[in-house]
Design a protein that fits this description.
single chain, two-stranded antiparallel ribbon, 5 strands, elongated
Length: 272
């Protein structure tokens, strides 16, 4: 099946038909799910449905249709008119046919559970809980974050750092922002606004976060007593010391090992 045919199937199923007919298809084998999906579109788009279903069952298109079916399952309660308006916004913002754009979004996701999340973001956009710009940003974020790390996002409701490595990855995708900059390198991260939206609209997790403005800087400032102690230690280390009746000098030598101990002490007293 050509990319053009796939794009037309996506566009037709989103824009023009009721999705109620595939509501129960999720319980069927994948081949039956594909067949139910193809029945949604008119025959002039895909040709003979039976032969198309047989053909794609032997190629990688079957994996795409499995993903796309899961995406549509979450949209069964939306109307063709709602989805049509959504596709119009997609097309205007991306400057490309909506079928191509949605096809690419669905196909690039590497976990079937992400398709459900993408559909929930679609519903959030349809009902204007997020902007079309947020939809594109969140779908890109969803694509780049491994599913195992997506499940770690709720931990960042409070400043947090995970040494296992998910912090850096989540930060690089824009899901986190730096919240605390620590002088000792123990930086803490917290959900970004986009990261919070991904949890709320993509996973249905409302964290009710309270945000502080700016980035905190955690520095270990020395007190006056600390400074005095440092200087006292420095001064003490620069002076000769008597231990067990022997005078030890700062350079490690002791009385009797220098050519002129008296001259050394005289110079030390004068600050030389």
């Amino acid at each position: 099946m050509t990319a053009e045919s796939l794009s037309k199937i996506v566009e037709q199923s989103l824009n023009s038909v009721s999705l109620q007919d595939i509501k129960d298809a999720k319980k069927r084998p994948i081949k039956d799910q594909i067949f139910a999906l193809l029945k949604l579109v008119t025959s002039d788009v895909v040709g003979a449905i039976e032969s198309e279903a047989q053909a794609i069952s032997d190629y990688k298109e079957s994996e795409f249709f499995r993903k796309y079916a899961y995406y549509l399952y979450e949209l069964v309660d939306t109307t063709p008119d709602e989805r049509h308006k959504f596709c119009q916004e997609i097309q205007e913002k991306a400057e490309d046919f909506s079928g191509n754009v949605i096809l690419g979004m669905v196909d690039r996701l590497d976990n079937i559970n992400k398709e459900t999340t993408l559909a929930r973001l679609t519903i959030a956009k349809i009902h204007k809980f997020i902007s079309i710009e947020d939809f594109f940003r969140l779908s890109s974020m969803l694509e780049r974050i491994p599913y195992i790390d997506l499940k770690e996002l709720p931990r960042y409701r409070v400043p947090f750092y995970d040494e296992s490595g998910d912090t850096e990855l989540l930060y690089s995708t824009g899901a986190l922002i730096l919240q605390t900059l620590d002088a000792n390198g123990s930086n803490k991260y917290i959900l970004s606004v986009l990261g919070e939206k991904l949890l709320l609209w993509g996973f249905g997790i409302n964290l009710e976060m309270e945000r502080e403005q700016g980035t905190n800087v955690a520095l270990n400032y020395a007190t006056n007593d600390d400074i005095d102690e440092i200087f006292n230690e420095k001064i003490k280390a620069s002076r000769p010391q008597f231990r067990d009746g022997t005078l030890y000098f700062p350079d490690g030598t002791k009385s009797g090992e220098m050519e002129d101990d008296g001259q050394y002490l005289y110079d030390l007293a004068r600050g030389k």
